[in-house]
Write a structure and sequence with these properties.
Radius of gyration: 24 Å
Keywords: ATP-binding, Ligase, Nucleotide-binding, Protein biosynthesis
Structural class: alpha/beta
Number of helices: 9
Shape: globular
Helix content: 10-25%
Pfam families: Asparaginase (PF00710), Asparaginase_C (PF17763), GatD_N (PF18195)
GO molecular function: asparaginase activity; ATP binding; glutaminyl-tRNA synthase (glutamine-hydrolyzing) activity
Family: Belongs to the asparaginase 1 family. GatD subfamily.
EC number: 6.3.5.-
Strand content: 25-35%
Number of strands: 23
Strand order of the largest sheet: 9-6-10-12-13-14-17-18
Distance between the termini: 60 Å
Amino acid sequence: MNPGDRVRVERGGVTNEGVLLPSTTRDHLVVKLDGGYNVGIDREEADVEVLESGVREVDPAADDGGGDAASEITFDEDLPTVSLISTGGTIASTVDYRTGAVTAQFDAEDVLRAVPELAGRANYRGRVVANILSENMEPSIWRDLADAVAEEIEAGADGVVVMHGTDTMQYSASALSFMLDSPVPVVFTGSQRSADRPSSDNVMNAVCAVEAAKADHAETLVCMHASPSDDACALHRGTRVRKNHTSRRDAFETVGAAPLGLIDYEAAAEAGAEGDAADAAIEWHREPTARGSAEQSVDLAPDLAPDVELVKFTPGMDPAAWDYLDEKDGVVIEGTGLGHVHTDLIPRIEALVEGGTVVAMTSQCLAGRVCDRVYDTGRDLLDAGVVEAGDTLPGTAKVKLMWALANTSDPAEAMGRDLAGELTEESRPWR
C-alpha cells in the first residue's frame, strides 16, 4: 500500500475507510476519511485492505509536518513585501497522530506551503520568533516579537502578519499596540481549527490577513472570521478585541462596538490574484490610522515591567487570597459593575498603594466604563488610591500597566488616558 491508495482499516472492532496519507511516524497510519477528517491508527495492531490503488495523488514531501521539502519563495518587484512572523498556534500546527493532539510544528515558510492561496499576493519573508502554543506566551516573547516586527519594518516590509495561537492573541496584540508606533500594518491572525479539519479557518484568515497587511493603514489588528460562514474577516483593533468563544470560528469580538473594519473574502481573493492591495475589499467602520511614508521609521518601546497581576473580585472571596500581591509593581482589579469590591478589601488595597503599587480598576462587565464616583464603595476606593481605567478591557489594562510602568514617568496618570485606542476619554461611540 502507498499514500494515495483507498484503504479499509480495521482495529479493535472499529473500521475506517479513506485515503492513505503520509505519516509523520512509522508506527502509525494516517487515513483521510470521506468526511474530511484525518485519523491516526496504530499500524502494528491494524488490519489493512487496499480497496483501490492511486485514487489520489499525494506528494510524500507535502505531509502534515514530516516532509523535508523546502518552501519556494519567488520575488516579484511589482509586489509589496509582507513579513510572516510565526509564534506557533493552530494556524501553523499539525496533528500528532501518536496522541491525537494538535501541536505547533510549522515555521513561517511551511505556512506558505500549507496555504498555497498566499502565492502571488506579495513577496514574503519568513521568520520564527517562537514555536509555542499560545497558553505558553510570556512577556519576554512579546519583547522578542516587537523587536522582530521593528526589524522587519526597518528592512523594508510593507506590512507584517503575525501568526499566533488564538487563546492569548488579544494580549499579544495589545502588547505590540503599546510597544510599537508602526508606519505600516501589523496584523495578527490565527486559526480556531487546524488544517486537517474540513472546517478549518486557516486559509481564509491567512489570505485576509495578508491583504489587510498590504492595505492603506497602519493599525495593529487582529484579523479573524467575522461570522461562522466563509464570507468576511473582521479587523479588530488590537487593544479592543477579546476572544469570546472557545471554539467558534468567529470567536473574536470588538467589545463595545463593531470591529474597526471588515474585509470581504471573495474581493480580497480577487485583489490578491492581481497583486493589488485589497483596499477595495475593506469596509472601514471608523477611520483607521493612516499608513506612514516610505521613509518613516518605526518607533519601538519594548520595555515592560513584568511584575503586574490581574485579579478578579468575587463575592465571598478570602481577603488573604490577595496577600501575594504585596510588593507587586502593579495590580489590575476586575471589579463588579462600575468598579467595586467588598469593603473589607479596601484597607488591603490602600496598603498596596501606600507600598508603591499602582492599582487600577476595571470592570467584569463586557461593556461600559468604570466610574467610582457614584457609590460610597467607589469613593472609598478612590480615597484609597485606586486609579480608574475607564472602559479599558481588563487584559488590555494589565498589558498597558506593564508598559506604562516601564515607559512613562507617571504610570497611574497614564492608566487614565488613551494611549493606543484602548480607552475612550468620554462616554461616546468608538472612534
